[in-house]
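**Discrete fold encoding**
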Amino acid sequence: MMRSVQSIPLLKDLSELQKQQLIDQTPLIPYTANKTILTEGAFGNDFYIVVSGQVNVTQAIDDRVVHLNTLSSGDYFGEQIFAASISISTLERTKVLGIGSFGLVYIAKHVPTGRFVAVKEMYKARLETSKQMGHVLAEKDLLSSFHHPFILKYLVALQEERKVYIVTESLLGGELFQRIVNPAGVPTPLPMDSARFYAGCVVKALKYLHTRNVAYRDLKPENILLDSHGYAKIVDFGFAKKLTQKTYTLCGTPEYLAPEIVMGIGHGFMVDNWALGILIYEMVRCPCRYSPHLDDPQRACFTMSILRGKVEFRKDADPEWRRLVEGLLTREPTKRMSCLAGAVESHPWFNGFAWDDLLAQKMPAPWTPNVVAGDDVRWFSPVDTDELTELKEWDFVSPEKDWSEF
């Protein structure tokens, strides 16, 4: 038992006496085969160490139980205790990933355990000035309710006088955008199998969201990050919304906006299926809108041609890929192909695709990033330090509203 305790990073700062006391006060509980020990999403204070035998980790996805991992002697679980141990004082910023209008995203080291996490740090006053307070509260509430292998994993939300923080897992493989556009801005189309793999991750994530009546509303390669194994995960839920009826907010990225958003006639989660069609098209076709030589009017012209149903396909384009894209880019939402209904998964373009292996993350990824440390950010674009200096001005501005709900 002592050997198992000594191998756990979370407990490494305990003295030998404290570790022995922990062992003495920890009951040894035998479990019979197929006994459920812990249910996902149920918060508890228990921390489990596997002394002998094996523990299967499964998840119910799409009405099926999928095997995710097998734990053996020395492994541990019940990491709500890890999230509960995170505070502002225990985090040490190491590398900045990006800078936005309201704050920055960076990798931080959880000093007590040595683990690395991602932190989205935002200024309260800046959010209030931009009338984004409600969006951030909604983002935190939604993200904390999700449990899916292809959606960013939420850990905890924190705040202090002038800032709020959303702490999540760190995804160090960079943006999917960088897989289809090289650093010089030149489009680099993906092989069909690679596009199918990334699309599969997104399809499963969208189906999970739509089952819960959540519209993501900002699908694009920049909002899809790759983990250290090369799997794709949807991040940034600032525009996501739980729907009870049609919504009329104009939001998202222009090139990915569905016709019903542009026309302002009200929309639901079918807008995500439209954006999925654009994504699948761009991964394979890499349209000229990515060209650094294209000006804004030309980009607008390209977008409008798609909204009118004029999508360009090469004569030698894969026919099933083309039919899938056309099905997703159907102007009428009620006739549009849907992830929720299973039409995308069962489409011939995905024939032979091992969905169970994808969910269990047993399928080899098309590309695996070489990540050598928990704060290795080589796969992200360099950050403009001038922007960081400009943000610092908000360090001295106090918020005016009540942030107790965060």
Summary: The chain has 13 helices and 13 strands.
